[in-house]
Specification:
Blueprint: H1 2-9, H2 13-22, H3 29-36, H4 40-53, H5 62-77, H6 87-90, H7 94-116, H8 127-147, H9 156-171, H10 174-205
Helix pairs in contact: 2-7, 3-4, 4-5, 4-9, 5-8, 8-9, 8-10, 9-10
Length: about 210
């Protein structure tokens, strides 16, 4: 009974994220990793990939965030218990890159999923095999978003797939993980198919 009460009293990820983002000091990637501990893998993927997943102007920061997500995903694949980042990337200010509008939207989206999600097949979101599969899928979807033609909007689906999968892992909801995987796979098809068509069209015009 004690363990159940602790779980129920545990603060929601959206509240912790909002509190962390609202603090009056630079909100860096390194600070996020330190603040969220064992949850930092999923939280970091949500924060990084929510930028290309949201249909708003991003000022070209998406490629940087996708590259960081790929590095972190590789660390999941090799079994690192914590996130390592180069010092340069640790100093990246999330609020400065994302702006108040994006950070506010991010917190609202996470809170919405927390309201309607509940644990479904939680054992499929835990363990070393699930961890490695999660890391592999995040790497592939992040790479797909990274390679999507600029200004095409095709990076939205694979990025959204990563966000949903990460929320599913964070909330122990396998339905969200499965939905994110399906959306990410659709994103791969869109980038390969429509992206290739777009490139050929531009070449023909040139």
């Amino acid at each position: 009974m004690r363990s159940v009460r602790r779980t129920e009293a545990e603060p929601r990820a959206s509240d912790l994220l909002e509190q962390w983002l609202d603090e009056d000091q630079p909100r860096t990637l390194g600070g996020l990793v330190e603040a969220f501990g064992e949850k930092s893998f999923a939280i970091l993927f949500i924060v990084l990939l929510s930028v290309p997943a949201l249909p708003v102007p991003t000022g070209g920061v998406t490629h940087v965030f996708e590259a960081i997500a790929m590095l972190v995903a590789l660390q999941l694949l090799i079994g690192r218990p914590s996130i390592w980042l180069p010092q340069r990337w640790k100093r990246v200010d999330l609020r400065g890159c994302m702006g108040e509008r994006l950070t506010g939207t991010l917190v609202r989206r996470v809170r919405w999923f927390e309201r309607f999600s509940h644990q479904r097949l939680p054992f499929l979101t835990r363990g070393w095999l699930s961890r490695e599969l999660f890391g592999g899928l995040v790497f592939v979807f992040s790479l797909t978003a990274f390679l999507a033609p600029p200004f095409s909007g095709l990076d939205t689906l694979p990025a959204l797939g990563v966000v949903l999968m990460s929320l599913g892992v964070l909330l122990a909801d396998f339905l969200l993980v499965a939905a994110g995987t399906a959306i990410g796979c659709v994103g791969i098809v869109a980038v390969v198919g429509l992206g290739g068509l777009l490139v050929r069209t531009v070449r023909d015009l040139v």
